[in-house]
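Handout, page 2. Input:
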Amino acid sequence: MSSKSYKILPFIRHYFSAQSKFKLHSPFIYRFYTGILKDKQQYQSFENIENIEKIRAGLISDQALINRKDLGARHNLDSSGSQQVSVSSLAVKSSVSSKKGRLLYRLAHDLKPQTILELGTCLGISALYLAEAAPNAQIITIEGCPETAEHARRILSETGNINITVLNGSFEEKLPEVFNKMPRIDFLFIDGDHRRQPTLDYWKICRPYLHQGSVVVFDDIHWSGEMEKAWKEIIADPYVKVSIDLFEAGIVCFKSELSKEDFVLRF
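Output:
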């Protein structure tokens, strides 16, 4: 069963179990819902966000081929561990959507993180959204595929974002290097290997570097049965105080003053 077919029933369950703002009694989550998730405010830099979408449009029209490697669960690779794909295909299928990019922007704009770690750079669209929201933050993003990482570096360099560092290598290989440079993570976006055990492994490796004010976003938590199992295990962690299931992504927070609660919201 394809991931697209698999998502139908979970989406139906999510749709009918989602809570409206009128049933959100937690001040913290009500503020999240009204001030971040459903916020329609046109920030001054939204003009620059339109520039990000122009970059995306250019990538979608780019038919140049990339040898993709180390792709985890998203793609079928040949025996050499690689697959030729077009830049256009990556931009359409693997980069964050405009809707999700704007959510990352609003989250980072509200949190004002000093440090941001992203697992899964792809072509750098999500990193651009995060950099636009937090221009003074130190941003490190890891990409497993050498050619994709180089392509992302070029794109980010052309935009003038000097606060983004793209590391090429496996997450397991590069995370110790990251923690030497970034011993405290304010904002973590996990958009890498979409399988249960690797997702749990990345969570466990990164968790000691999080703090009570940190926010973690997991992409595609309903992408497969494995990802749904990983999400359930993550939100059961006693360290997690609040979880927010948006179907397309999951968010966890750790503030000790919050009650242990799990929310399902429409995105």
